[in-house]
Amino acid sequence: MSSFNAHLKELLAELSAELPEVTERRMFGAEAFFANDSIYAMVWDGRVLLKFPDEPQFEKARALEDSGLFDPMGSGKTMGRWVAMPEGMIDAPEVLRPWVEEAHREAMRQPPKKKKPAKSPAKKTPATKRKKPAKR
After folding, report:
1. How far does CA 33 lie from the centroid of its chain?
2. Which residues contact 42 (CB under 8 A, 6 or more apart)?
3. Domain 3-109 falls in which CATH fold?
4. Could you please report the per-residue DSSP string of the chain?
């Protein structure tokens, strides 16, 4: 992880420190923050990304000057409800904080993820014995 991405991860951790049920783990090869097991923030390629499932909040964040959409492959195909927050907010945590808190609130409102049942271990079947060819 680049030192700049590490700085952004620390910034998100600081802004999320007082928020309930926050966990961190890697997702899509990036540092990601979760609430209620729903992702709400991520550091990707030198940008802070926030997820807004609520349409009005998504549009409000998207309308910010210098914000962008999340296009992980650079192909023009964006991931829904993700906003790359304006780079200037990195230097103004007090401006970024309410956006992080809103993304967190939205994640907390998401229905709980269904746990996948644990896979049962593969059944071992006895190896079939080969008959030795008869001696001639």
Report:
1. 6
2. 27, 28, 30, 31, 32, 33, 48, 49, 51, 82
3. Yope Regulator; Chain: A, (3.30.1460)
4. --HHHHHHHHHHHHHHTTSTTEEEEEETTEEEEEETTEEEEEEETTEEEEE--SHHHHHHHHTSTT-EE--TTSSS-PPTTEEE--GGGGG-HHHHHHHHHHHHHHHHHSPPPPPPPPPPPPPP-PPPPPPPPPP-
- What is the chain's mean pLDDT, rounded? 86
Q: CA 19, CA 63: separation in Å to the nearest integer?
A: 25
Cβ–Cβ < 8 Å for 41, 103 = yes
Q: For position 27, what pLDDT does the model report?
A: 85
Q: Is the pLDDT of residue 1 over 70?
A: no
Is the pLDDT assigned to residue 72 strictly greater than 80? no
What are the Cα distances from residue 94, in Å, to 11, 42, 54, 98, 116?
Answer: 11, 18, 22, 8, 39
